[in-house]
Amino acid sequence: MQDFLDLVDRLSAADAAERQRLEAEIWGRFGVERALLSLDMSQFSLTVRRSGILPYLALIRRMQALTAPIIERHRGAVVKYVADNLLASFAEPADAARAAVEINGAIASGAERFSVAIGIDYGRFILIPGRECYGDAVNVACKLGEDVAAAGEVLLTQAARARLGDGFDFDLREQKVSISGLELAAFGVVYAGAP
User: Fold this and answer.
1) Nearest-angstrom CA–CA distance, 53 and 92
2) Cα atoms in the 13 Å half-sphere on the side-chain side of 7
3) Has residue 194 got a pLDDT over 80?
4) pLDDT given for residue 56 in this prediction
5) pLDDT (tens digit, 9 = 90+) per residue, 145-157?
6) CA–CA distance, 145 with 119 (Å, rounded to integer)
7) In terms of pTM, does the model score above 0.85?
8) Could you tell me which residues come within 8 angstroms of residue 8 by beta carbon, excluding any fewer than 6 positions away?
9) Which of 115, 149, 152, 185 matches a 20 to 30 Å C-alpha distance to 193?
10) Residue 148 gets which letter from DSSP?
11) Cβ-based neighbours of 20, under 8 Å, separated by 6 or more
């Protein structure tokens, strides 16, 4: 991580030629083209106000314990957990979507009731494995998961949908969404229990 930060810190003082070289080095070392899954636990503020932070922290820990093996089983990797959010990367959006459906199913069948909203995008972004990720695909997936998707919903971007291929197991429901003033098509994954 420090190598990455050192390179970024050098950008602000660099002249145009050095900036171009540094950007190429950063993208060459840390750039990936993958699917990014963003999960947000629903109703954080309301639940904390009603029950307090400690019971909700227990739910966050339950979410973390439940999601990590599912992400791994679907050939993904957890990038990080932050508060009640999860970011995970996958080589392909189909694996991310299957993981998302399994996560929602596991939550629904669990004793402790909570729900999550999930957004998935595909594109080029900066990835420091197990630590951090930055880029448009990250931003869009987070917006879908945190601001647009309903509890239990899995939303994919057009870029993620375009990479699904013929073997994808679920139907998709198209909808128009607005993210930070941009009008985009999103695709809800249709599965048993989906909103």
Assistant:
1) 35
2) 16
3) no
4) 87
5) 999 999 999 999 9
6) 4
7) yes
8) 26
9) 185
10) I
11) none
Class of domain 31-190: alpha beta
Place of tokens 């494995």: 129
Would you state the structure tokens that stand for residue 13, as one six-digit string?
């003082």
CA distance 31 to 4: 11
How far, in Å, CA of 38 to CA of 98, rounded? Answer: 14
182 pLDDT exceeds 90?
A: no
CA pair distance 125, 136, nearest whole angstrom: 7
What residues contact residue 65 under an 8 Å CB cut-off, 6+ apart?
A: none
| Spatial CA neighbour of 191 closest among 130, 127, 101 | 101
Task: Please identify which residue in the block is written with the tokens 């909700």.
Answer: 56
Is residue 129 within 8 A of residue 48, CB to CB? The reply is no
Q: Would you put residue 154 in left (φ > 0), alpha (ψ -120 to 50) or beta?
A: beta
Angle, in degrees to the nearest 10, between helices 2-11 and 16-30: 160
Q: For the chain, what percentages of helix, strand and coil (3-state, to nearest 5) are there? A: 45, 30, 25
Rounded CA-CA distance 134/128 in Å is: 9
